[in-house]
Amino acid sequence: MSHPLARLREDVAAVRLRDPAARGSLEVVLVSSGLHAVWAHRLTGRLWREVPFPGARLVARVLSQLVRSATGVEIHPGAVIGSRLVIDHGMGVVIGETAVVGDDVLIYHGVTLGGRSLGADGRRHPTIGDGVMIGAGAAVLGPIHVGPGSSVGANAVVTHDVPPGSVVVGVPGVARPR
Questions:
Q1: Which interval of the chain is the signal sequence (predicted)?
Q2: Model-level pTM?
């Protein structure tokens, strides 16, 4: 979407669509911590990627940590986030620096999109396809791909690629067709 106000409306509509407890748009705008974190990430992500002055990345990181304190959601400014991401309940969600999250993704509380290595170079975090649902407490770790339309069960630990349209459950996570 090109117009910022239209994108904000689209975000609110996405939360209302995926959160049965959302009773109205005003409530979503005022109390949805996951939505606040996504909106803040748009600002910090632009600072991280597009602002040419030397301190921009530091400012982006500081702002992202302030947002983490306020919302319980930590999205690194370097992460790439698609449209209509919904983070339901939010608390404890961590999205790492090289993570890529597609469109229409639903993430529940306590989810980690994290790395498995300490290397500073290259991709360390997962790529999440469009229309993926990640259940509460799940950990998706490393430079793996979760295929579009997949679901990751609550508390699953995923360390290998997930084919499109799969359901992943367990520790370690095992992908099964729907």
A1: none
A2: 0.92
